[in-house]
Amino acid sequence: MPKNNFILFLCFFIFCFGYFSAGQNKTDSLLKMLKYAKHDTTRVNIYIDLSNLYRKSNLDSALYFGNKGMELALKIIWNKGLAQCYNKIGNIYTEQGKYDKALNFYLKSLSIAEKLGDSNRMSACYTNIGIIHSYQGSYDKAIEYYHKSLELDIKLGNKKGIASCYNQIGNVYKNYGSSLNNLKVKSEKIDKAIEYFEKSLKIFEELGDKNGISYCYNNMGGVFFSQGNSTSDTKIRADYYNKTLDCFLKSLKIFNELGDKNKIAAVKSNIAGLYCTIADSTETKSYYNEAIKYGLEAIQIAKEKKALSTENIAARVLQKAYKGIDNTTKALKFAEIVIATKDRRKNESNSRNGNKIPD
């Protein structure tokens, strides 16, 4: 069975986006609007918008504005705005990895949404609560809450919401299966994951939602990859890897059509990682060359877009691939990039979670 000492999937998609000057201009504009706003409900909405914007650069500042909005909404007894603030604060705590706090705020938001009879917000809350349970490894609870969200989206006729729920449930079953040692139960969970990804894919195709379609293909590819790694049968493993490649190439084709460079880089990095794994499992060095081709394309785009996570993963794959073809000089070069991007990600994370609160 092949060994994989690099991260192939960024939870099947985590993309890094820069914080551009346009965002700063919008922040300045909102701060000016806040100063002259005449109505408290308007001020709450501005606090919410500021919290959203600062999530891109400084989570403590985002939390500051979320709390300001919450305090004002409580003061004027505006439940709709309060539910939004609770949800935003929950999102920030989720990004900080403070899952118990996040769950507390999502439950507060849900309680208000239930009193208001706001089915859309209830569905969103159920989804967020499901995400927290999934992160905590409480897969049965995650599935329970995703199904609650799904039921509401079905009643609302929200097809995009339905497709997204199917996709989320598929991811939970995928992670659930990966956590198990019992091969029979593991296989059952993985089969469920594929079933839900296929349901999601069908609806996204009906909607013509290319982003959704591409995510489904990428997630399905991830499941096939895991199945390939879980078998010692060479023929079965090769079949799963072929299915993985087919899904990744379909995902890549769509993102090429959309011109989404961040996602193009991430998928190419996944393909490069897959070729490395195939080279390891077959002891065929020519696959390392394919890994290098896709890895170099991925890392070039990632550098252009300042997508540090993708750059880090592409560098790991390239380090492994060049080592595989006995090019120690280039393997060392990309090992250094792995360390450098890891440090930069850590520094950015520290900055993003810094204590600077805007005036």
What does this structure look like?
There is one protein chain. With 359 residues, this protein is mostly helical. It contains 15 helices and no strands. The radius of gyration is 22 Å and the shape is globular. The protein folds into three domains: 21-116, Serine Threonine Protein Phosphatase 5, Tetratricopeptide repeat, CATH 1.25.40.10; 118-230, Serine Threonine Protein Phosphatase 5, Tetratricopeptide repeat; 260-349, Tetratricopeptide repeat domain (Serine Threonine Protein Phosphatase 5, Tetratricopeptide repeat). Residues 1-22 and 355-359 have low confidence and may be disordered.
- What is the general shape? globular
Q: What is the third-level CATH name, the topology of the largest domain?
A: Serine Threonine Protein Phosphatase 5, Tetratricopeptide repeat
Global mean pLDDT: 88
SSE order, one letter for each helix or strand: HHHHHHHHHHHHHHH
So how many helices?
Answer: 15
N-to-C span:
56 Å
Low-confidence region ranges: 1-22, 355-359
Radius of gyration: 22 Å
Helix/strand/pairing class, anyone? mainly alpha
CATH architecture of the largest domain: Alpha Horseshoe
For CATH, the homologous superfamily of the largest domain is named as Tetratricopeptide repeat domain
Count of strand segments? 0
Task: Compute the number of structural domains.
Answer: 3
Strand content: under 5%
